[in-house]
Please model this.
Amino acid sequence: MRVILGIPCFLAALLLLTGNALASHDPSGAPFDEDFVTGTAAVTPDPSNPCSDCKGIRLDAHSGPLGENAFGSALYSLRQNYSGGPATCLTVDGHRAVVGGPDEILWGTYLILVEDNAGIGTPDGFAYNFISTPSGLPEAPAACPDPDDFVPTEGPIQTVVSGDLVVHDAGAPVPTSKGQCKNGGWRNFPGFRNQGNCVSFVNHPG
Model:
């Protein structure tokens, strides 16, 4: 069941955003050893009647560098329909990311693709998927797909015309001491076959 609500202050704020829609790639705050997606952005295809097809998102999702321990929130708007809830998964790959979680407004699961395109000199973009759940209740996705595997089901990728979306990829963690490799610790770092391989990296980085 899709819930129809009146236009809240959030959407009004989205439509009043001004400035360049290109992301800055210079987010404020810390730490930067985590993956995160933040920002507010809107699409207004018809400036003379912006709510004829309003779309917008507000995101503040964070996780470890491998997508672990994701937290935060996401809200998506389409005209007078709203979707979103807590962020329970996050997959970041370079300047693109997928955020997902239980949809506490439409009751199901949501996934949002985000593109921070400042680095390639084009406007940011986003796409949204709503997934019905067998229980008909809000359910967290088991994991967020890789951005390359995201298939938009609720319309194509939208071009941001106001606001700013920032995607930060912390990259895979690497060991900085031999102790981090011992007692199975090497398994915490992707790409190592065993403890010796991990220790060798510490001794000869790169």
